[in-house]
Amino acid sequence: MKELQKYVDDLFRHQNLTPEIKDLKEEVLSNMTAKRDDLIARGFGESDATEKVKESLSSIDHLIDGNQLTDAGKYHTECSQTVLLNCIIFWIFSFPLLFFGHYAIFSYMGLLLTIVSGAVYLLKNKRQSDVVAFLSISESERRRKIVWIVWTLFFTVWIGTMAAVTFGSNLWFQRPLHIDGPYQAANIAIRFYLPLITMIVPITFSNFTKLLTKGSMKMNRKNIIILCLLAVAVILFGMIQFWIIPADNAKQEEYAHNQTDALTHDISAVQNYKSPYIGDASNTINLFGVLPLNNLSKKFEIDSDACSLTVNYSDSIGGVAEEKLKRNLIYTSIAAMAAVDNLAKITYNFPDSSYSFGREQVEEVFGTPLSDLLDKEAWSKQVQENLSSADFVGQFFD
Question: Which residues neighbour 29 within 8 Å (Cβ) at sequence distance 6 or greater?
Fold first, then answer.
């Protein structure tokens, strides 16, 4: 009895012991025991009877509901072919990530996965075995459901986290959301796009189940699709990597350089940091990060009671022409006061000099509330054009 029990346990070792499987296991053991006892009654020795019974049932795969007799070698080759196809699709859909710095690594991962899965497919296709075995459709379906549940949880957590990081500050300080142009919109959208393309993982597991239940298109036809997609992917990757991105980087470098000079600065970058209060330290730091002199190391001191701001620069201004420095300081002061409603005074401290600007002084020059100047056309005409005049600049330092 113990020998048969051990043998049956071994037959069921790879099965999930659901109530149905437990009942089947008990039934198999009972039938084998009865058959052995019948053989003993007919004159067989106990050892011979046990061996004969074990030989009569070498596998229980055909007894399990949901198992299907399958060409295992071909199935596994088709699975590796499906993985290759889906890796190429993932790689193509990851191309937009190449334009966004640290997200680009996911596109390079797509390239690596394509190379690895391609090598695995070629190896399996070359060494495809002729093994026929029972494969569990129900187990494949269970894995598919688990992967979809895990991916859904991952997607929900990622989207929630990105939404909190992206929009949390605006909601907390009750600032309106302002998206300045298509590039910034794309920067926000890419955070939500990345988890979406990972849907290829549960889709792949669904394809595995479909291969078991319904089969797939002929492998030669799918090979043609793979080759066509791979050719498209390589051409697009080459164009993006060696033509489009270098041109885009050159434009960004030019824009960044222009943002360090009052005469070429794009004031629309300030719109994201409009605030009624100077007390929002994070907003103030980010605001000065998009204004001229943003390339100089500095620390901030905020006096919320006096509504004043002190900017302490650790770098000497020896490398900056005096005329350009004064122009940039005026520009930065006007922009900061226009963006922050209650900012009354700004002081700039350098290792060898100091400058201060008050709201009343600045508004007296323009004769209008500074917030009215933030319109791009008005700003260009009333601020930037005037700053090219030495006389206009000089009145702030008399």
Answer: 4, 5, 8
Provide the b/e sequence for 33-65 (b: ≥16 CB within 10 Å): bebbeebeeeebeeeebbeebbeebeebbeebe
> CA-CA-CA-CA torsion for 300, 260, 98, 105, nearest 10 degrees?
-40
Question: How many CB atoms within 10 Å of residue 113?
Answer: 19
pLDDT in tens, 245-296: 999 889 888 988 888 899 999 998 888 888 888 888 888 888 999 999 888 8
Q: What is the pTM of this model?
A: 0.64
CA distances from 251 to 246, 248, 271, 293, 353 (A): 9, 5, 21, 20, 35
pLDDT tens, position by position, 35-84: 778 778 878 888 887 777 777 666 655 555 555 556 778 888 899 999 99
93: number of Cβ within 10 Å: 16
The strand pairing partners of 133, in sequence order, are 70
Q: How far apart are CA 143 and CA 73, in angstroms?
A: 20
Between the alpha carbon of residue 385 and those of residues 198, 389, 393, the distances in Å are 50, 8, 11
